[in-house]
Amino acid sequence: MDSSIVALKREKRILLENYLNENLPRYETTFMENEDAVYALDLDGHFLQINPACEKILGIQVDQIGEITFQKLVPVDDLHRVFQNFHEAFEGKVQNHDYKIAKGGHHVYLNVTTLPIVVNDEVVGIYGIAKDITALKERNAKNRKEHRKFINY
């Protein structure tokens, strides 16, 4: 990778880490007590901060911070769409989409909102909020199946 790109990413990551360290304490209760998974990603998609719900919903352990990327959670078939949506978030656009992720041998459906983290007028990372909608998706699928049975009767 071009050394100027590496240097720029490193500079933005430092800005992001400083921003998170300075600002998270103000919102710590909202962050830590939120039932939805709340996290911060750097420009390479590494998780830098996660709340306790991330472990439950996404299956990410605190000791994996900085090592695991969102790409490892997404099935290969959905990666292109996820990359497209994250790219738009990196361009400064708030995104909201439903995704399927792999967790412990099964799939979990999420409604994910991504927001750019802007420092000095530059996007340096992304905040994500992920709500587990698996039960809703399964209930809707069951209702559609029952509706089809009724119509075919």
TrEMBL record:
Pfam families: PAS_4 (PF08448). CDD domains: PAS. Residues 23-93 form the PAS domain. NCBIfam families: sensory_box (TIGR00229). This is PAS domain-containing protein.
